[in-house]
Amino acid sequence: MITVVTRFAPSPTGRLHLGHAFSALTAFRFAGVHGGRFLLRIEDIDTGRCRAEFVDGIFEDLAWLGLTWEAPVRRQSEHMEDYAAALARLQAAGVVYPCFCTRADIAAAATAPHGAQPLYPGTCRALDAQTRARRMAEPHAWRLDVARAAAITGPLSWHDAVQGEIAATPETEGDVVLARKDAGTSYHLSVTVDDALQGVTDVVRGEDLFSATHIHRLLQGLLSLPTPRYHHHPLLTGPEGKRLAKRDRAETLAELRARGVPPEAIKHQLGFA
């Protein structure tokens, strides 16, 4: 029997809100029901936005809700060598390329249907070897050559708890960034490596990350990593039907606590009574 391992992996760029609480409680309950383990991971590679007080706030809020987790807590900023090693393997396989484009360059060249996230147009993928070598001293990111990578792995799939077996279609996400200009990694690379190193068997997260799973499955295939089961839960929304988000100043758990709302009321509201 394989022990179930779930995780909650917030970025410390603000205080947690009800949407975070729902995701954390869902992962925690899933582990408990299956006699498994629950991990907390701090995804703090964005050094410009992540702050120590928000890390402390995550611990405070989750403990207030009654959650417990294993120690030590993995902090991504302390494990950059793991991501560098994975990136080096991908470089050796010839499935990544340096990208020198600025955000303005990409916005000017990318196209997408109305309301959709524009895909990277592959500008730097087409650079010849001499031009790349000449420009390597410039700031650059590393992008995944999705077409070349998919040709190596062949067809892939992954299992979603709601939708069943899903054929991976990473091409719908375009050539995503695997290492940012200001960091040696990105969300896609870090989360894939972390889940494998921590032995996560069941990834419980919001349905807004469903599409990212296509890229994560491709990276797992390239790096010969195990594929967890995925559970993409619905997102909580506010009174206007818009999903709760830090950038929209969704009421935080700290603010609810300051108003005297007990954790039992929060759990009841979220369906965990």
Automatic annotation (TrEMBL):
Ion transport is among the record's keywords: no
Top-rank lineage group of the source organism: Bacteria
Coiled coil: none
Keyword Zinc applies: yes
Domain Glutamyl/glutaminyl-tRNA synthetase class Ib catalytic: 4-268
Uppermost EC category: ligase
Keywords of the record: Aminoacyl-tRNA synthetase, ATP-binding, Ligase, Metal-binding, Nucleotide-binding, Protein biosynthesis, Zinc
Gene Ontology molecular functions: ligase activity
EC number: 6.1.1.-
Family (UniProt): Belongs to the class-I aminoacyl-tRNA synthetase family.
NCBIfam families the UniProt entry points to: PRK05710.1-4
Name recorded for this polypeptide: tRNA glutamyl-Q(34) synthetase GluQRS
Organism in which the protein naturally occurs: Sphingosinicella xenopeptidilytica
